[in-house]
Amino acid sequence: MHHNVKGGAASISNIQTSSLDMLSAFEKTLISNVANTVKEQYPTFDWRRDDHSEMNDKQIVALYLVKNDISQICGNDKDSIQEFMSILEYIFDEEFSE
User: Fold this and answer.
1) Does 6 have pLDDT greater than 90?
2) 35: burial class by Cβ within 10 Å (0-12, 13-18, 19+)?
3) What's the structural domain count of the chain?
4) Do residues 61 and 31 touch, judged by C-beta distance below 8 A?
């Protein structure tokens, strides 16, 4: 029995590419949906940086997920969250200062 390896490889490659495209489209849709939900949850927040550039959906979702993680780590205690944020700010200042 003879198999056409080249044709098979091309078919597998096409399937992999189309699967990646489909996953990529799904990921973008999911991120967009979560970002829209976050924006609705905080309607008074501007979602722009200090330079007035818009945050993209991935950045909005990342901020929301980090916020949730910090809240959980600190037991949803406002004072603990403020202390945690102060420590993070210090660490970032140390890491990125001259």
Assistant:
1) no
2) buried
3) 1
4) yes
